[in-house]
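Sequence in, structure out.
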Amino acid sequence: MAFTNEQLERYSRHIILKEIGPKGQKKLMKAKVLIIGAGGLGAPAALYLAAAGVGTIGIADADSVDLSNLQRQVIHSTADIGRPKVESARDSMLAINPEITVHTYYEYITSENISGIIRDYDFVLDGTDNFPAKFLINDACVLEEKPFSHAGIIRFEGQLMTYVPGEGPCYRCVFKEPPPKDAVPTCREAGVVGAVAGVIGCLQAMEAVKYITGAGDLLTGRLLTYNALRSQFRTVPLPRDSHCAVCSGERTIHVPFDYELPVCDLK
């Protein structure tokens, strides 16, 4: 596949990097990435993956744009209030890069549909903000052998890790079960600084780019944490659980299942 003159100009800053180069850019253009959640994390990730030239991007979210979203969900605008987030996100991505293909899933991701959706993608980004969704995404990706980036944000802090089949722990190795109901503040109760979502969402996009191109080291077996108040990043090693219910030889989870959703939605 030869680059057009427009593509050579659009992706020139990638192509001159020895870690990416023409070969890596072509890999990005052939890649398929799914983003679950078009909110604080999914918004910056989607914009940067579109700009990077990822050939096919899926975006899944059952919510519509609300005024309170705009403090951090930079893929949407005031004019988008009331529109499905997936439609607003699609339009913003195509405005940046009309060459890519965007598939939208205006529906809740559940145990009934997740496996069929993720099966078509090379890499998955978890941009959700509740524990039941995160465990569902982890279990489905492990069972379907799909690499994915987990991330979470609250107040002034964020964290992320990457799972690659056969390499390092999965999310359930680290966090065995969702916390009891009401044990953790909801996203509406706790609050979050919008720029923190931008930092962590961009790091998720970077994990996808590195996985696709083979550049650098992924956050497999490591949890990256960010404290905005202290301007501090830390990397914590994560051991694999040899008794993990979904990724070990002692697997007891063989199909994805749904936990009860909290009151807080995907906003």
